[in-house]
Each structure stands twice: as C-alpha cells, then as structure tokens.
Amino acid sequence: MTGRIEGKVAFISGGASGLGEAMVQRFAEEGAIVYFGDVNDASGARVAEATGATFIKHDVASEEQWNDVMSRIKSDHGQLDVLVNNAGILGTGPLETIDLDAWNRLFAINVTGVMLGCKHGGLLMQGNPGGASGSIINISSNAGILATASDCGYSATKGAVKLMTQSIAINFARRGIAIRCNSLHPGPTDTAIFTPWRETEADSNRLDKHLKEMTPLGRIGKPREIANMALYLASDESSFSTGSQFVVDGGGTSALAGM
Ligand SMILES: NC(=O)c1ccc[n+]([C@@H]2O[C@H](COP(=O)([O-])OP(=O)(O)OC[C@H]3O[C@@H](n4cnc5c(N)ncnc54)[C@H](O)[C@@H]3O)[C@@H](O)[C@H]2O)c1
C-alpha cells in the first residue's frame, strides 16, 4: 500500500464482481474507506469479507436506494470523495430482435443508474466539510466510442454515458463546483459479464479468440488493469482532468478495422 487515496471515502456501484470488485480491492489497498453496492448479496458478502470494505445491497435503477446509500455514508463519515458508477449489464442484441422491456431495463441500469449516482453522489460531494470536492468516474466502454452492430442497446447506453459525463463535468466546472467527472472506457476484460457466451468450452474458446483478435495487444484485459485507471482518476494525481475519456482497451479503438 502506498496511500494514493488515503482517507478518501469512496462508493463503487456493482462492486461484487469483475471490474467493480477489482476497484474495491485496489481502492482499499491504497487507503480509501470503501463502500460498495450490488444487487447480488452473496457476492457482496464475499467481497466485503475479502477486502474489509462495506457492502450495501443496492440497485442502481432505484432513486430511493441511491438516497439510502448516500444517507448512510453521510451519517457514517459526513462526506463522499469518490464515486464510481460501475454497475452495468450487456444489452439487447441487434436492432431487429430488440425486446422493449429488455431495452428499458438496460437503459434503467446503464444510463439512469449512472445519472442517479451522479445526482445523489454529487449532492453529497457538494456538502463536503471542506467545500464541494470529489471525483466521479463513470464506466462506459470501448463500445461507447465505437459502435457494435451486434448489440445496439449496449452501444447506445455506453455512448450516452460518455456524453452525460461531459455534460455533468462542464455543469460543475462552469458553476465553480470542484467535482470532477470523467468516463472510463475498458476494452474486453475477463469478467463474469461474458458468462452467457461461455456455456461450453468451444463457445468459450471462440469468444476468447474473437476478443483477442479485436485487441492489438493480442490479449484480454485483467480487471486490475482497469481498476488502476479508476485509481488514478480517484486520486488527486488526475486533478486537471474533467469531462474526458480514459480508454484502457489494449489499443482496440486506435486502428481502423483491418488496417
Ligand atoms: N468486462 C468487460 O469486458 C467490460 C468492457 C467494457 C465495459 N465494461 C463495463 O464495466 C462495468 C462492470 O462490468 P463487469 O465486466 O465487471 O461485469 P460483471 O458482470 O462481472 O459485474 C457487474 C456487477 O454489476 C452488478 N449489477 C448488475 N445490475 C445491477 C444493478 N441494477 N444495481 C447494482 N448492481 C448491479 C452485478 O450483480 C455484478 O456484480 C459495466 O458497466 C460494463 O458494461 C465491461
């Protein structure tokens, strides 16, 4: 531990698996007081036990539950320094097969959930004892920069997160509110989000081959590699960055396809 975010109070949504779990662990290693939410009780308890962080059962699509989370953190510590809007799900498939209920649920989690986090986390940060301050990190995707034909809804939600982040960042900055807001864009990273494509060994090998081929570095990312960028954005090392996109994708969005 080097204390890069020593004493900062952080909340990470969807922290019971994958990238969120790696962030909970990394932030705790660097001295933060870490709270995390998730809809999955059992995994939340496991991650809390492993990291010493505090788990709160929490659905990002519920405004009432965002209120409850922020009230709890306010009553425990009186401040919030870092918010990571990480919870997210994969989408709806291609345009021609979209089911409207699934589309609405996807937007409720991937877009409305991020907005509610920014709204309620931002309000708590504005009341921080030393004056408004904080860093909000919204997890978008490489699919929020370049589109996928195979998942219309996912690209739409992740693109929305990118522009919502810019809007929020500029809103705070122009009002002289010292809360930064940036988006983080991971490329393919080894987490449970791909479980539906790993039903058989053959499926899993096909997926791995595809993900490696779309990544110039020739491999799938590790959750800790994404968490390290979140850590930088959470820390004061990134103090001049707001409204920006931070891509960690093994080079995947750098080249035109096939060139
Ligand atoms: N893994 C990748 O390759 C990759 C790439 C780009 C972006 N992302 C994004 O990273 C984020 C994390 O994904 P991951 O790969 O770690 O997936 P994951 O499935 O391993 O973890 C997501 C977590 O979010 C939780 N969650 C789902 N719905 C929720 C809700 N309504 N409220 C609260 N928690 C909820 C799940 O229970 C799970 O613990 C997502 O926003 C995803 O879109 C992932």
From TrEMBL:
Q: What is its EC number?
A: 1.1.1.51
Keyword tags: Oxidoreductase
One family from Pfam that matches here is adh_short_C2
The EC class name is: oxidoreductase
Q: Name one GO molecular function term.
A: oxidoreductase activity, acting on the CH-OH group of donors, NAD or NADP as acceptor
Extract the SUPFAM superfamilies matched here.
Answer: NAD(P)-binding Rossmann-fold domains
| UniProt record similarity statement | Belongs to the short-chain dehydrogenases/reductases (SDR) family.
The name under which this protein is listed is 3(Or 17)beta-hydroxysteroid dehydrogenase
| Organism of provenance | Novosphingobium hassiacum
From the broadest rank down, the organism's phylogenetic lineage runs: Bacteria, Pseudomonadati, Pseudomonadota, Alphaproteobacteria, Sphingomonadales
